[in-house]
Amino acid sequence: MTNFFSAAAPKDTARVEMATSPTTAHLYEIFDRSEPIAALVVALDPQQRMRHAELLYYDRDRSLESLQSDIYKRAREVVQSNYLGSNGMASELRVLDANVLNAEQVEHRNPEPTFSPRRLYRLWHLAAGYGALLGLLLLIGVLNRMGGPAAETTVAAAQPAAQPAAQPAAQPAAQPAAQPAAPDGIPAAALSPQTDGLAVSINADNRLKVSMRVRSNPNYSTEILTQPDPEQGEPVGTLGYGAEATLLGGPTWLAGESDTIVWWYVETEDGIRGWTPANSSEYTLLTPVE
What we know:
By secondary structure, the chain is of the alpha+beta class. The protein has helices at 65-82, 123-147, 149-157, and strands at 25-32, 35-44, 50-57, 92-97, 213-216, 222-225, 235-239, 244-255, 260-268, 273-277, 286-288.
């Protein structure tokens, strides 16, 4: 959580300053037999990556040591499984005592607050629109099949004036070419490199290539995601400290804070498949197994 208070002011003048904008955070309350005993607060950056987390014990002196251990273990699992760090690797988990010093019911007097409840959209409106669009597309398909030659005339009319008015039936212009299936369950996006015109990475090992065995940095563990993007991919596993994996596809390059991040589609020794970064903006994370 952001420290909203400034350093100690002179003795005669107490000055308190508050940040101009709040930090986004997730709150997880932890219960023991329906009684709240602790809370985990995860502070996030604008890209929903974790800055740090704070585990707050409401009354640590009354909690058994074994219970405290279970609470910490659960909080650590949430941090490892649900988030990526701002640097793509590890984030700080702090443990604090949260003693209640005062409690007061504060009235809300601003009719137009800075943070208002989000407007809920009725899903049936979206469903009705989608259904109408789907019905229209089906109707067009039926008319094209029943129309015979008229369907060819419609296709020809969509071509530039220099094109012949009639198109051979064996060359439907509106149908895209079928894409070949990716081999062995590997997603099509992993079959060819995607560099997006970015600069060559400084920290990624340039010896990496498809089918190579690699080893993760022994000082860090990295998430394995469904997509090569920490903002869109969902975690499916973790490549642990010094763990080995096989490169099945890639790479895909994404812009990092100060270096290009190179993502590879990997398979771990446990059979988990997904995307993991070969580097961060500061460190090399994957190297060939010698």
